[in-house]
Amino acid sequence: MSLTEKVIPEATIEAVARSLYKETQYYGFRKIDYLRFANQLLDMTMRNGDEDRQLKAEPIVYHSLQSLRMPLEGNDIHIREFESSKDRALLEKWISDRNGRYFLLSSITAKTLNIDEVIESEQNILGMITLTDATPIGMMAFLDYDRGQHKGELRKLIGEVQYRGRGFAKGATQLWIRYGISSLGLNQIYLHTLDTNFRNIRLNEELGFKVEGILRNECYFDGKYHDILRMALFIE
Hints:
Elements: H1 10-26, H2 31-55, E1 72-73, E2 77-81, H3 84-95, H4 115-120, E3 125-131, E4 136-146, E5 151-158, H5 168-182, E6 188-194, H6 198-206, E7 210-221, E8 224-234
Parallel strand pairs: 5-6
Antiparallel strand pairs: 1-2, 2-3, 3-4, 4-5, 6-8, 7-8
């Protein structure tokens, strides 16, 4: 392998392996089945490796950004300031969704954060994602924004189900990161994600985040424990 090729972090590989292992346990895999499975993966890699390398996106690099102010304007989306009087009801609706609830899930206690405390705290910076016609579709946030240490925890949520999986999350997150660096002075942006959500892990890696470690059995919900990946983006 060329020295210039990106090395996938060991924690990411382990997270994907653990996710696949859980799936295979459901189907009752035996040792011989794992060998057959590994051979299938190797065969797919040999057949599709060249095509995968051509399609693979390089991580985004952030540097010397011009100061941004809300509303932030992207190609397909805008991000405006969160207005509690008209946006709180939407946030309540979005976090009632199975995926949306993670937006207010504390990475420390595994308990849902109080929505009013999140909205009212001066340590939290909230933004509403809208389409270019001002239709609200989701939210971005920096929680526990530490001005002295120049760091904050990134949260993202596409609340309207019909707009998920269409690239809006990536565009909004990239815009939000640029805002955090240029206007809030962030040097470190971190986030937490379920070890089984490797689509989100891959998106975060494309945005420049790297896995720092795995918090074992960190959260208990839906009747079982979940590992949490901590990922971080450092700005030189």
